[in-house]
Every structure is written in structure tokens, then in C-alpha cells.
Specification:
This protein is mostly helical. Helices cover 52% and strands 8% of the residues.
Length: 216
Amino acid sequence: MISEAFLDTLVRMHAIDVSREELRGLGRPEGYVDRQVRGWAERWARAQTEEVPEMEQVIRWLAGRIPAALAPVLIHNDYKLDNVMLAEGEPGRIETVLDWEMATLGDPLSDLGLTLCYWVWATEPEVRVAGIPALTSQPGWYARDRLVELYAERSGRDVSHIGYYETLGVFKLAVIIQRIYSRFHRGQTQDERFRNFGARAKALARMAARLAENQT
């Protein structure tokens, strides 16, 4: 019930008319994925505290296999269960989508790909190390394949390259975690919660490399 409502909300979000005047200034959709790869690779280089060969492998893979762009849509850029509110007494309906500060115009599959990064199975070893919540591994939640199948069916979009976008999503998560860790590593914060973030970033790098390898 919640799985379907969550997916349908994403489909409806991607169906919003982005030619409307109030939305056209949100971003530059042309070359969106290419800018994402280059930009996050640069962020990784600035935050790096040790050599992680898997990340260099993933960066080369992403840069060399950018899919043809789909028509741009409004993308949330952090669409996950943490950022939705269910209607009170009606868990099959999404009442609100939160945290729009990263919203822009771009490729719809980049949104779906990042969502899949959080929609995980508890048996994945990298997931445990990376600390990604595994709520959706419990009985009753849709598997990732089912989410992709329903998205394709209800949006009418070609999802044949979704593996690329999931790899990109995991890569971005690794960079985000590493940037937090680099601040701890350099003494810019003393927060002990960040001590193991370097290990978490490396776990995500391994996951991204494995995803890329499985598609090569």
C-alpha cells in the first residue's frame, strides 16, 4: 500500500508541466547528467582522504556511458521515505513531500535511480556497513524491480538504462558521506558520529563499482 503510493507520487511529480513560467527557472536540463557526473567527481577529489580505486573506476564508467537524455521533468533529487508524510489514518496516501531544496529540472530516471539506492535489501553487505536503513527489506514492501516495472508502466518512460542511474545515485551518496567524513578527518568537526563515515563511503564505492560491473 505505502510502496504503491510512494511510487505513484513520484510518477505524478514527474508529470508536472515544467513549461510553466514558475518552474522554468529551476534549472538547466540540457546536459544535466554530464554535469552531475563531473560535479560530483570534483567534489570527491576535494573530499578524498585516501585512495579508493573503486571510486575512480566508477567515475570513468559513468563518464563513458551517459545515456541519451529523456525529456526533462521536475525532479526532487532526494526522494525517499524519510522525505514523505503519510496521511493520518490513511497510510496508502502521501500527504506531503518534504525537503525540496535540491529540486531542479532534469532527467526523471536520476530521481528514480537515487530512490532505488535507499530501497534496499538487508542482505546486502555494503548496506550494513554504509548504514542505509533497510526498512524496505521487510515483508510487504515492493522489491526494487517491482518499483521500476510500475514506474515504466505508469509513466510510459523507457527505463532500460535505470542501472546507470542507480549507480550514479550510489556514487553521489558515497561522495556526500565522504565530504562529511573529510571534515571530521581534518579536524573541522569533533562530532564522533562521523568517525566511521570513511568506511561507509568506501562501502558505497564498492556497491557502485559492483553495480557498474554487473552492467558492463
